[in-house]
Amino acid sequence: MTSTEKLEVWLRGPLPGMPGLLQPVAHALLQAREEVQAQMQDFPEELLWVRPASVASVGFHLQHLKGVLDRLLTYARGEQLTPEQFDALKGEGQAGETKQSVQDLVQAFSRQVDKALDQLRQTEVHSLLEPRGVGRAQIPSTVLGLLVHAAEHTQRHVGQLLVTARVLQGR
After folding, report:
1. What's the distance, CA 43 to chain centroid?
2. Position 73 pLDDT exceeds 90
3. Do you know which SUPFAM superfamilies this protein is assigned to (predicted)?
């Protein structure tokens, strides 16, 4: 690992093709991905759905990281959620019939970060203050508000995931 790679993502410089105003959002998402990949590398499968002290499981956080990012970016595009997105939301926190592994869930989140970065690169700066409705109630927000919240919410759940994983592993 080079000395630059040891730095947090935001200290490594601007990302190519990323609008300047969206660099912090992209940096936060990339930092989240790196932290999740590092923490989950050797995480035991048998602990994936354990809820210590009744807090959310690592499996929930991994599902939610992907799902909430997908949902918030959908709203940022001015679209409404699809039936598949609602089904995924209902399934967050459940192992499901497919029994996805830790690495399956980590890779699904990683792919969602890639999609988010693509959307950020395609976002026109002049659109950032355009109004967007959130949810069925169409709660008012903006493109920028949704993108910043996507990064902030992702970081929040990564923090919770990291603590839960460490508690479960006795560290």
Report:
1. 19
2. yes
3. DinB/YfiT-like putative metalloenzymes
